[in-house]
Design brief:
It is a single chain. The protein is of the alpha/beta class and 430 residues long. The chain has 2 domains: 22-166 and 318-386, 3-Layer(aba) Sandwich (D-Maltodextrin-Binding Protein, domain 2); 168-316 and 393-428, Periplasmic binding protein-like II (D-Maltodextrin-Binding Protein, domain 2). Helix content is 38%, strand content 15%. The protein contains 16 helices and 12 strands. Strands 1, 2, 3, 6, 7, 8, 9, 10, 11 and 12 form a 10-stranded mixed beta sheet that branches. Strands 4-5 form a two-stranded antiparallel sheet. α1 (69-86) links the parallel β1 (60-64) and β2. The protein is globular, with a radius of gyration of 21 Å.
């Protein structure tokens, strides 16, 4: 698992890099804030796995975009176990640049058999015929969270199995909380309460709430207000909607009263470091921060809570990848068997223990929450989680919007959103 950071910087996370090399001329398409997955993608030339899968005695190659040594070791161990039981060798390589290495493999006619695919890369691979649509052949495809399968569905076809996922939640510094005279009863469940506790926590040289100035975080407020950057089919831009204006006006209000600051204004690249260094008593981040807290800030005591509901209810953002299979793989049968092993309940729980991910199958939820009750809020929000637009060209629009959000406090919200609306409209028209 990797954490998505600002699109203008290198990404660490599995939900990963957006741009693919020009040699493949890939386009991207997928879900908008609505969480309705890949509506609008063509998917036609990506092929279907409804026919017979290729089969050979060849070993299979697996290319992953790893978050670090723990993930790489865990996948290699799982691959070795699968190889022992299946009789087919599997080699796992952690890519230095996943998209670039995948593109090179496809261009050379020798792609990896199995590989990580982000939501923003799916439609490009599918539309140019690189990706096998094997979703209908998954034995337990109904066990995946519906919002995740939607993210990897194009024109009604499930292309690949979601490998795991992340959501955003509220991190609270326990010592700061207690020092401000707050109790468990004060954990915010509404915007009004979030504002109140942020003000009370802004003391002793630290701010109450710090958030990275990007759509990948502030988009949660938009979802809570009932907003989105596009309609569910990604055919129409909805950036300048009244709901989005309300959401960013709320954020701007927190910035204006000083109870919230952007991580960049605190000299940090993301909210996790601002929180870990105790420059902020709270932050909004994904479950990847739990690993960073253990490794970089082990002395900081914290708890995780669900994000407060907005005017239209609960809402958070999700980040996910799937296991892609190359359409040109000479051993699709073994590749599918490998994927089935990787997304099985027991294996996903093993991955969770090894490197902190949340299983993509609902059957693992109860066990996962029993083993990690302190992180249950991440999974409890799964039903309210939505994704960002991924249709071709929208990534550049979001990156441009990210570059503007840092100056939100000195910018008129409606004017900012109207500018992004024009760009998003143009992107959706191709």
């Amino acid at each position: 698992m990797q954490r998505p950071v600002r699109r203008s910087t290198a990404r660490k996370l599995t939900a990963g890099a957006i741009a693919l090399t020009a040699a493949l001329t890939l386009s991207a398409c997928g879900s908008g804030f609505s969480g309705s997955g890949g509506a609008g993608g063509s998917g036609g030339s990506g092929g279907s796995a409804t026919g017979k899968l290729t089969s050979s005695k060849d070993p299979i190659s697996v290319l992953i975009g790893s978050s670090g040594d723990a993930e790489t070791a865990a996948v290699k161990s799982a691959a070795a176990s699968w190889s022992k039981s299946s009789g087919t060798k599997a080699t796992v390589q952690a890519a230095n640049n996943l998209d670039q290495q995948l593109a090179q493999g496809f261009a050379a006619g020798k792609p990896a058999d199995v590989f990580y695919v982000s939501t923003s890369s799916l439609a490009g691979y599918a539309s140019n015929g690189s990706l096998l649509a094997y979703g209908d052949q998954l034995q337990d495809k109904g066990d995946f969270y519906p919002t995740l399968t939607k993210s990897f569905t194009l024109d009604g076809t499930l292309y690949c199995a979601p490998k795991d996922f992340s959501t955003l939640a509220l991190f609270i510094n326990k010592a700061d909380w207690k020092a401000a005279g707050l109790t468990d009863a004060d954990v915010p469940t509404t915007w009004a309460q979030l504002k109140s506790v942020s003000e009370k926590l802004t003391r002793d040289g630290r701010v109450g709430l710090a958030v990275s100035p990007q759509v990948e975080r502030l988009g949660a407020f938009m979802a809570q207000a009932g907003g989105a950057l596009t309609n569910s089919g990604q055919t129409k831009a909805t950036v300048d909607s009244a709901a989005n204006v309300e959401a960013l006006d709320y954020v701007k209000g927190l910035l204006d009263d000083g109870s919230m600051k952007f991580s960049s204004d605190l000299g940090e690249s993301w909210g996790g470091d601002a929180f870990g260094k105790n420059k902020a008593a709270m932050t909004i981040e994904g479950n990847w921060l739990t690993g960073a807290m253990s490794s970089s800030y082990p002395s900081v005591g914290y708890e995780v809570a669900k994000l407060p509901a907005g005017p239209k209810g609960a809402g958070t953002l999700q980040f996910t990848n799937c296991w892609g299979i190359a359409k040109d793989s000479p051993n699709q049968e073994a590749a599918l068997s490998f994927v089935e092993k990787m997304v099985s309940k027991d294996q996903q729980l093993a991955f969770a223990k090894a490197f902190g991910v949340m299983p993509s199958v609902e059957s693992a939820a109860g066990t996962w929450k029993q083993e990690y009750p302190q992180y249950a809020p991440f999974l409890d929000q799964a039903g309210d989680a939505v994704g960002l637009p991924t249709k071709s060209g929208t990534a550049d629009v979001i990156a441009d919007m990210d570059s503007k959000l840092g100056t939100l406090r000195s910018t008129d919200v409606k004017t900012l959103l109207e500018g992004v609306q024009k760009n998003m409209t143009a992107a959706l028209k191709g």
